[in-house]
Amino acid sequence: MRTARTKAKHGGPNRPHAWWAPTRVLLSILIVFLSALSGFPATAQQKPKKILILFSSSNRNFQDLNDIESALRAVTSQPVDFHVEYLDGRRLDDQEYEEGLVEVLGHTYREVNLDLVFLQSLPALKFATRNHDTLFPGVPIIFIDVDSGSIEGMKMGPGVTGVAPPMGIHASVNLALQLHPNANTVAIISAGATNDEYFLSRIHSELLHQRKVRVIDLVGLPSSQLLEKIAALPPQTVVFFQLTPSESVQPAMGVHDILARVSQRLPTYSLFPYNVVGFGGVGGVSYDWQSEVSVAAQMAKQVFSGKRPEDIPVIQYARPQVVVDWRELQRWHIPESALPAGSLVLYRQPTFWERDRNYILAAIAVIVAQALLIASLLWQRYRKRRAEAVLRESEERFRVMADSAPALVWMCDEHGKITYLNERWIAYAGPDPDAGYGDTWLTFIHPDDVKNVLSDLWKALKDQKSFSKEYRLHRSDGVYRWMFDVASPRFNGDGTFAGFIGSAIDVTDQKLAQQALEQVSGRLIEAQEKERTRIARDLHDDICQRLALLSMELEQAKRDSTGRVSATKNLEDIRQHCCEIAEDVQSLSHQLHSSKLDYLGIVAAIEGFCREVAKQHNVTVDFAESNFPQCMAKDVSLCLFRVAQESLHNAIKYSGTDQFKVHLSATADQVRLEVTDAGAGFDLEETKKNRGLGLVSMQERVHLVHGRLAVESKPGMGTKVIAAVPLADENGHTTEDETAKRAASLRETS
Fold first, then answer.
1. Confidence band of 196 (pLDDT split at 50, 70, 90)
2. Same domain, yes or no: 77 and 129
3. Which of 19, 243, 482, 647 has the fewest CB atoms in 10 Å of its CB?
4. Burial class (CB in 10 A: 0-12, 13-18, 19+), 62
5. Residues 70, 24: contact at Cβ < 8 Å?
6. Is the same domain home to 337 and 477?
7. Do 273 and 370 belong to one domain?
8. Among 309, 311, 320, which Cα is nearest to 118's?
9. Residue/partner pairs of 201-210 with CB below 8 Å, 24 or more apart
10. pTM
């Protein structure tokens, strides 16, 4: 995680207790020296602990090393021999480098009986786990400074544990976008190493959950090309700078030089804030390094006492803290009040009080009463102006947001009178800027919709709850457009109801598209039925009559024939074939359009169809009806007949059984068709994903008559198809329509 740590972390001008670091080192050395003098005979008998510390960065930060050594010495009474190795984390993906490194470390520590391997950062962890059995067989490994998300699903093997604080990627991204609310682009500068891919993916993932910003990756570019790309970035850009210095590579332009060029033009942040603070960057979110080392040392203490590392769970421990450069806050006009509580602000310039407090104290001693009075008045004035500025900023932010929103935004008081309209609403209504305020907004609503809109508004004002409605709104060009309006209540600071704030969007195009789609579906089915009726009429009136005539002629020829017996038999076979053809054509005619449906009604038509299907496919179809009306609308009868046809054909084709049931029934408000089999059944969810034309056709037919289609099936449990259609009265209105009208009438009366 912390690929490099600069002096700003431990020695920044405003770091609290910066003097304590060298003093603590001297005290530690003195304590160890005195302990050695006082207990020399005893310690001479103790075997020292041998600990190897692996750093994944070739940059030697001796303060980090001192922190680790001090913490490990504090958890054991035995003397400790430390061995330190600095790896080049950027080259650990190079197989030749790793093989050479394994050979060197194996030769170096072959004769050293290590008691613990203490490593820092993810590259060192991956290297140690890959070569654990080769370099450190049986030696416990404790790691620190590894992001918890980077080791999810990672197989580390036995003998490995450590501290994995969650990296503050989420907090850093939120901090940058919060301090720069107008930013519309995020540029990520990285070296492109394998270890950087994880951070890039995490930053991209976090930005997906933020407001819409464009992400530009500047990864692995040479210095000149990188500076050209940076110069071309738009002004509303925030930069995440992930380059870190490395001893193995010395480019013509150093990392800090590039950082200075970038930060001169754009606000710059980093997931490792101490890499940019003090060099032109604003900062980022870090965590408490001392606490992490202390926790890892306690884990080492458990290992020294005999506990296996695999029995010590990996600890996700972190104390995130915002670290920023005060100078950059001033440069980018970021108030400290925008920072989260507890933020660490470095390089702050001394205030007027800090610079001249001696003179101020002397003046206060002379004119204390006047100074206190003046200070009190200034403080009150300052607080008032600050509150007014915050209020103006809040109102301006709301106005900008409302005017830029792709909707008509409005606000009313507790009595329903409009008090605010955004610019988009005013432009929609017409040239008069005062139109729509107060009660005049009602003049823009279609006269047929005014009553419903007022009813919903008065009810919402009474209940003080969110509501939504659809209505037609008059546009400046004289056209009424359908609007979908959603409103939420707003409250004053004391909790009293202040009215509603809402936004309306134009849904006319969606409504027209939906109506067109329904009309197209109905026209397709109507055309299909007309074509079927024509084909059925042609088959019945032409082909069937001609075949019947042919059969009669053959019968006459048989009676008149005085020939041989074989000729008579052939004529009989021909007659039989003609009869079968006539029956098949008649069955096909009934399938296309049953004449029984037109003349005998839906019950007789479906019953006759069941008999024909049973005879044709040699199956049993049980038909039953109860309380079913004989007279029914033509479109409903045709719908139920087609659903029965499609359902029976599918059941015979796929169920694997020869027993089927068809049941027609009716209640006071609807008719119902059920087609049931006890066959193989099917997975309903899988069929919905890949539904065929048969199911779509049935659903469209039932939808056109305002009915509902349900399919109940499970593998091995059979299938039931249910079509329920509401009954229509003599005026053609369904029961559901009448219910909706009654409810609307009750609302108007109330």
1. low
2. yes
3. 19
4. exposed
5. yes
6. no
7. no
8. 309
9. 202/149, 202/167, 202/169, 203/169, 203/173, 203/240, 203/271, 206/169, 206/170, 206/173, 207/173, 210/173, 210/174, 210/177
10. 0.41
CATH number at residue 720: 3.30.565.10
Whether 193 and 332 map to the same domain: the answer is yes
- Cα dihedral 703, 708, 714, 716 sign: negative
Count the neighbouring beta carbons within 10 Å of the beta carbon of residue 568: 15
Enclosing H/E stretch for 217: strand 214-219
Q: Which of 130, 110, 138, 25 is nearest to 71 (CA)?
A: 25
Q: How confident is the model at residue 371 (pLDDT cuts 50, 70, 90)?
A: confident
* Selected residue with higher pLDDT from 644 and 37: 644
Query: Taking the alpha carbons of 229, 231, 232, 236 in that order, is the dihedral positive or negative?
Result: positive
Q: Which of residues 116, 134, 162 is at a domain's end?
A: 162
Provide the 10 A C-beta neighbour count for residue 494.
6
Q: How far apart are the C-alpha atoms of 530 and 546, rounded to whole Å?
A: 24
- Between CA 285 and CA 275 the distance in angstroms is 12
The share of the chain scoring above pLDDT 90, in percent, equals: 21
* 569 within a domain of the structure (yes/no): no
Residue 142 clears pLDDT 70, i.e. is over it: yes
Tell whether 191 and 77 lie within a shared domain.
no
Collapsing DSSP to helix, strand or coil, 625 comes out as: strand
Q: Is 21 left (phi over 0), alpha (psi -120 to 50) or beta?
A: alpha
Q: Are strands 214-219 and 659-666 parallel, antiparallel or unpaired?
A: unpaired
DSSP-assigned beta bridge partners for residue 499? 490
**CATH for 217:** 3.40.50.2300
DSSP 488: E
Length of the chain: 750
Q: Are residues 340 and 422 in the same domain?
A: no
Tell which of 506, 539, 555 closes a domain.
506
Cβ atoms within 10 A of the Cβ of 277, count? 29
Domain holding 181, by residue range, is 169-285+320-344
Residues 654 and 746 in one domain: yes
Task: Look up residue 264 and give its amino acid.
Answer: Q
Structure tokens at 611: 């008999």
Domain assignment present for residue 575? The answer is no
Instruction: Report which secondary-structure segment, H or E, holds 648.
Output: helix 634-654
Mean pLDDT of all residues in 371-387? 87
Here the CATH number for the domain that contains residue 466 is 3.30.450.20
- Residue 572, domain member (yes or no): no
Measured distance CA(281)–CA(349) in Å, rounded: 17
Alpha carbon distance 503, 519 (integer Å): 31
**Residue 559 confidence class, pLDDT cut points 50, 70, 90:** low
If asked whether residues 334 and 368 sit together in one domain, one would say no
The pLDDT of residue 8 is above 50: no
Cα distance between residue 624 and residue 662, in whole Å: 6
Name the phi and psi angles at 421, rounded to 5. -135, 135
Q: What is the pLDDT of residue 238?
A: 94
Q: pLDDT digits over 54-80, tens only?
A: 988 766 567 788 989 999 999 998 899
Tell me the C-alpha distance between 96 and 89, whole Å: 14
**Direct distance between the N- and C-terminal alpha carbons of the chain, in angstroms, rounded to an integer:** 66
Cα-Cα-Cα-Cα dihedral sign, residues 279, 283, 284, 288: positive
Q: Which of 341-350, 444-453, 546-555, 668-677 has the lowest mean pLDDT?
A: 546-555
- Label the pairing between strands 659-666 and 620-626: parallel
- Which pair of tokens denotes residue 207? 């930005």
| C-alpha to C-alpha distance for 613 and 378, rounded to whole angstroms | 97
**β pairing state of 214-219 and 185-190:** parallel
Question: Where would I find the H helices in 305-367?
Answer: 326-331, 352-366
Q: Sheet harboring 497-506: ordered strands across?
A: 418-421, 408-412, 497-506, 480-491, 467-474
The Cα-based distances of 304 to 43, 69, 160, 238 in angstroms read: 17, 15, 14, 47
Residue 298 included in any domain? no
The count of structural domains within the chain is 5
100 is written with which tokens? 């050479």
